[in-house]
């Protein structure tokens, strides 16, 4: 507690003194983070760091002393000693003691990190190539979270914004002052969900549900960014995490909004959409959800990700086209989009694929056709 | 610790012939010196190929944004760089040094199994040729990292994974044959009087390394075979959808992988333990404790593998066990460092090029050991894992560790091999450029790792830009300095100040009793060791 207050105070002072430098450039150290666990980890990190520094000072001190004093050019004559049982015992025993002293706090913190019981909010996190899905268990709220950094910024055609590569369309919102449990799994390869400020990093492994938790204290509301930390294929570097901590009340309002949004979406699918509307929407959905694999111009990528421009399926068999986007193809990177995209988005992207890049079929796929195909 | 009574008049010059002429000398040779030489040149070639890949990676990472290559090719580069450096550069270099020096250090006429020796070398160019060839295929080279975690390397892999598996099998066979050869040579061909506890430390560390190799290379072969079966024969060892277990892959891989990292450092410990006493003109401090420390490290290396898996969701008890076991490794490692420093203490030191590399090894390897100790603290590893902090750690132990050890060994024994001293000014130039380059490259990686940059990403957020730019500059300094190394090597082979038989004033051991350059056949009659 004392540590926390002291640290809050010093960070305020530091922030005032070095406001521009605090833009995180030249950042040298691990963040202390905003939870008790992240603070404890930071303290462990600093403790072991200083232990290493002191051992280094002593060892390198003796070494450099010898290098300067005991050199032949200064007339040093080699002594012949080459054994000392006392020394050997000493420098085996001393490190042992230091390590035991280090192991004790490390064990305590680890036990605390593993205590996922008594959570107030449970969020299931699923890794996909290359996005995250969040499901709020028991709340009927769930959504995908995709990178929103435009290609132009990545390919240096536009100026990079402040949150370059660390921005997504939908934040994962959590309440402060409550224990949030994360249940982490994957739909395809192994990913790792990591937000440094809350010191949660857990691998997302197909077939496993890993648990982790965070308790963000009240007063620490804000936006915290992280990234996937396990190599998961081409776009491993492009699946960030944006965690938004809000007060308990705001959290409840947000949940309501999500549920209402879902109903509105279902209603919209019943409405009519013109070809032009679908094409505009489709281009958008395509860029966000499909371009990573099928290429910005439908040209595909390497030998694994097929081109859609001029492809048989996009020009001819509409039923098969709808089917593969809805249900994916098991055992390949092509995922089932039935639960990821609304029926409107689905209709739009398929319409788009059948009419873009010279695929001029002139056909329109309506949201109703998708709703029917799902039956 | 060993006193030799041998001198050159008991190397033979009767009945034996010199090397055969032409290319067939190298293809058919069973001579340990020829084979050692081929291993070393092969390794240097791989170092330059792997190094070029590293420079491609660092160029892309010079600034945020994608500039030069695509993410897919970036992943192929990181994967191939890792595989080539580990299996193509570091390991063969040590085998080459062992081939050259183990017989000379124990007074043996050659390796015990000379024909097998020829095979273990000649497999390698084919294994790596095949691996490199995948770069030019349509599917591209392996792109799943040198740790090739399933299912990214199975269900989701490019088709070149099959070539990769075949290549790993060939390297494994080569390593196992090399290791068996070294074990048999050491056990059977020691000169009379050369008891185990009189063996030079380089021989000792290689002896232990060879056992590690024999123990874990089959495990690697097993894990890639399981992958092969998952990919082609419909099994599901690592496929969760078929009832398999992706975490099993990691357990098996790291059961190989952690001993593997010690395979890459123990022989370097041995080299440094030869060099420091020579240039401190003082016997190695704590010879016996060095042997025991090496053995304990080798033993412990089998029971710490899951420290690479702290974040996969192991049960708490497992996590604690692996944390404690990993922390323990620091103790014998520390003993070695303390012994080296005590050897220097009150010595009479000079600083020729091999010694400079050995000293840099002690300091920089220890820094890598410190970050290893930090990584062993499991709760903290949740923050470090899979970030550039880990990249900094293993590059400190592998570049100024393993690689500097190799370079130091090459400079140390080169006069014995070629009969010429190196040009010290050039050697020192190489040293200082490498020393500066390595630190400018890898030290900032600690900072970007702690600040939160994940490893294996082709592009990064803006706050990591400055240190990445510095690291790239360092990488180019380091990379191009190795051309100085190549230059020194060629220059020394072609001429230079004539080396004495003892070569270095403080050098002791059988290898310094034979002429420089070492004749094609040595110790046909075993020397006597008192
Ligand atoms: C004091 C001794 C050492 C300790 C305590 C130690 C500890 C560790 C730990 C805990 C990790 C896992 C970090 C992570 O992924 O989160 C690691 C990674 C690694 N270490 Fe060490 N280490 C030591 C020495 C060495 C040596 C001598 C080498 C090789 C010469 C080495 C090579 C590596 C490599 C290659 C990795 C990264 C593997 C990968 O993920 O690609 N370490 N070390
Ligand atoms: Cu990833
Ligand atoms: Cu390890």
Describe the protein in words.
The complex is a heterodimer of chains A (375) and B (530). Chain A has 10 helices and 10 strands. In chain A, helix 2 (36-69) packs antiparallel against helix 3 and helix 6 (275-294) crosses helix 9 (343-355). The model of chain A is unreliable at 1-24 (pLDDT under 50). Chain A has helices spanning 2-17, 36-69, 85-113, 151-154, 248-270, 275-294, 312-315, 318-327, 343-355, 367-374, and strands at 121-128, 131-136, 141-145, 172-175, 179-186, 191-195, 200-204, 210-215, 222-228, 241-246. Chain A is 43% helix and 16% strand. By secondary structure, chain A is an alpha+beta fold. Chain A has 3 domains: 29-71 and 81-115, Orthogonal Bundle (Helix Hairpins); 121-266, Cupredoxins -  blue copper proteins (Immunoglobulin-like, Sandwich), CATH 2.60.40; 269-374, Orthogonal Bundle (Cytochrome Bc1 Complex, Chain D, domain 2), CATH 1.10.760. In chain A, a hairpin with a 4-residue loop joins strand 6 (191-195) and strand 7. In chain A, strands 3-2-1-5-8 form a 5-stranded mixed β-sheet. Chain B has 530 residues and is mostly helical. Chain B has one domain: Up-down Bundle (Cytochrome C Oxidase, Chain A). The longest helix of chain B has 36 residues, at 71-106. Chain B has helices spanning 24-28, 32-60, 71-106, 114-133, 161-188, 201-232, 246-263, 266-280, 287-300, 316-344, 353-376, 378-384, 388-418, 424-450, 465-494. In chain B, helix 2 runs parallel beside helix 4, helix 2 packs antiparallel against helix 15 and helix 10 (316-344) packs antiparallel against helix 11 (353-376). Residues 1-15 of chain B have low confidence and may be disordered. At the A-B interface, helix 2, helix 3, strand 7 and strand 9 of A face helix 3, helix 9, helix 10, helix 11 and helix 12 of B. The structure holds protoporphyrin IX containing FE (HEM) and copper (II) ion (2 copies). Protoporphyrin IX containing FE is lined by residues 147, 261, 264-265, 307-308, 326, 329-330, 333, 369, 372-373, 375-376, 381, 384-385, 390, 393-394, 397-398, 401-402 of chain B.
């Amino acid at each position: 507690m004392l540590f926390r207050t002291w640290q809050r105070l010093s960070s305020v002072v530091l922030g005032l003194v070095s406001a521009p430098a605090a833009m995180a450039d030249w950042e040298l150290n691990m963040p202390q983070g905003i939870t008790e666990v992240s603070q404890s980890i930071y303290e462990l990190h600093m403790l072991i760091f200083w232990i290493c520094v002191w051992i280094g000072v002593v060892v390198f001190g003796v070494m450099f002393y010898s290098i300067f004093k005991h050199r032949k050019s200064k007339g040093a004559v080699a002594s012949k000693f080459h054994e000392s049982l006392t020394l050997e015992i000493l420098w085996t025993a001393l490190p042992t003691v230091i390590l035991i002293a280090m192991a004790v706090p490390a064990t305590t913190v680890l036990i605390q990190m593993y205590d996922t019981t008594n959570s107030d909010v449970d969020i299931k996190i699923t890794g996909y190539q290359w996005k995250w899905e969040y499901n709020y268990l028991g709340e009927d709220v769930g959504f995908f979270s995709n990178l929103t950094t435009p290609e132009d910024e990545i390919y240096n055609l536009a100026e990079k914004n402040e949150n370059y590569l660390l921005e997504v369309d939908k934040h994962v919102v959590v309440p402060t002052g409550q224990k949030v449990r994360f249940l982490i799994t994957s739909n395809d390869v192994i990913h790792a969900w990591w937000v440094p400020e809350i010191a949660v990093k857990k691998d997302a492994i197909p077939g496993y549900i890993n648990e982790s938790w965070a308790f963000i204290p009240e007063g620490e509301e804000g936006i915290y960014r992280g990234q996937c930390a396990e190599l998961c294929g081409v776009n491993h570097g492009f699946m960030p995490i944006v965690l938004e901590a809000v007060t308990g009340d705001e959290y409840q309002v947000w949940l309501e909004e999500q549920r209402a949004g879902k109903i509105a979406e279902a209603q919209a699918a019943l409405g009519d959409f013109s070809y032009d509307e679908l094409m505009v929407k489709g281009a958008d959905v395509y860029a966000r959800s499909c371009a990573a694999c099928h290429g910005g111009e439908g040209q595909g990528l390497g030998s694994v990700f097929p081109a859609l421009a001029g492809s048989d399926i996009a020009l001819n068999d509409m039923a098969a086209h709808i089917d593969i986007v809805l249900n994916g193809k098991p055992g390949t990177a092509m995922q089932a989009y039935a639960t990821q995209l609304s029926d409107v988005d689905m209709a739009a992207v398929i319409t788009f694929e059948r009419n873009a890049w010279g695929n001029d079929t002139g056909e329109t796929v309506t949201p109703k056709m998708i709703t029917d195909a799902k039956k | 610790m060993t006193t030799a009574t041998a001198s050159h008049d008991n190397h033979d010059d009767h009945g034996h012939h010199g090397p055969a002429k032409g290319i067939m000398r190298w293809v058919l040779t069973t001579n340990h010196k020829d084979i050692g030489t081929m291993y070393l040149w092969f390794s240097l070639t791989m170092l330059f190929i792997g190094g070029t890949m590293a420079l491609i990676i660092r160029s892309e990472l010079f600034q945020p944004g994608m500039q030069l290559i695509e993410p897919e090719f970036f992943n192929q580069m990181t994967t191939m760089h890792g595989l080539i450096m580990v299996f193509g550069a570091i390991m063969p270099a040590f085998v080459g040094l062992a081939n050259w020096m183990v017989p000379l250090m124990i007074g043996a006429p050659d390796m015990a199994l000379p024909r097998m020796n020829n095979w273990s070398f000649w497999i390698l160019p084919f294994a790596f040729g095949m691996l490199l060839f995948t770069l030019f295929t349509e599917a591209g080279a392996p792109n799943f990292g040198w740790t090739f975690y399933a299912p990214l390397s199975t269900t989701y892999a490019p088709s070149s994974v099959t070539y990769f598996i075949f290549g790993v099998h060939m390297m494994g066979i080569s390593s196992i044959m090399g290791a068996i050869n070294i074990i048999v040579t050491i056990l059977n061909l020691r000169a009379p009087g050369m008891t185990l506890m009189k063996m030079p430390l380089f021989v000792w560390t290689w002896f232990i390394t060879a056992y590690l190799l024999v123990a874990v290379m089959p495990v690697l072969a097993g894990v890639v075979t399981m992958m092969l079966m998952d990919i082609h024969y419909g099994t599901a060892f690592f496929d969760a959808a078929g009832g398999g277990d992706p975490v099993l892959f990691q357990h098996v891989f790291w059961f190989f992988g952690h001993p593997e990292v010690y395979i890459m450092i123990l022989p370097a410990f041995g080299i440094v333990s030869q060099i420091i006493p020579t240039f401190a003109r003082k016997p190695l401090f704590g010879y016996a404790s060095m042997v025991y420390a090496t053995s304990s490290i080798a033993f412990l290396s089998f029971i710490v593998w899951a420290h690479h898996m702290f974040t996969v969701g192991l049960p708490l008890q497992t996590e604690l066990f692996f944390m404690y076991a990993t922390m323990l490794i620091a103790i014998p490692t520390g003993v070695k460092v303390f012994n080296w420093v005590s050897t220097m203490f009150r010595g009479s030191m000079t600083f020729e090029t091999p010694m400079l590399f050995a000293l840099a090894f002690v300091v920089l390897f220890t820094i890598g050991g410190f970050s290893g100790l930090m990584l062993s603290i499991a709760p903290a590893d949740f923050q470090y894992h899979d970030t550039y902090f880990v990249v900094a750690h293993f590059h400190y132990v592998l570049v100024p560790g393993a690689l500097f050890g190799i370079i130091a060994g090459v400079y140390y024994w080169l006069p014995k091999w070629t009969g010429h001293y190196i040009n010290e000014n050039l050697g020192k130039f190489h040293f200082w450029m490498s020393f500066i380059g390595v630190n400018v490259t890898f030290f900032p990686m600690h900072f970007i790792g702690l600040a939160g940059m994940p490893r294996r990403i082709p592009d990064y957020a803006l706050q990591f830009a400055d240190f990445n730019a510095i690291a790239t500059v360092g990488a180019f300094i380091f990379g191009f300095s190795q051309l100085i190394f190549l230059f020194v090597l060629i220059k020394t082979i072609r001429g230079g100040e004539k080396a004495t038989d003892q070569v270095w004033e403080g050098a002791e051991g059988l290898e310094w009793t034979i002429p420089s350059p070492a004749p094609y056949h040595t110790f046909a009659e075993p020397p006597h060791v008192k």
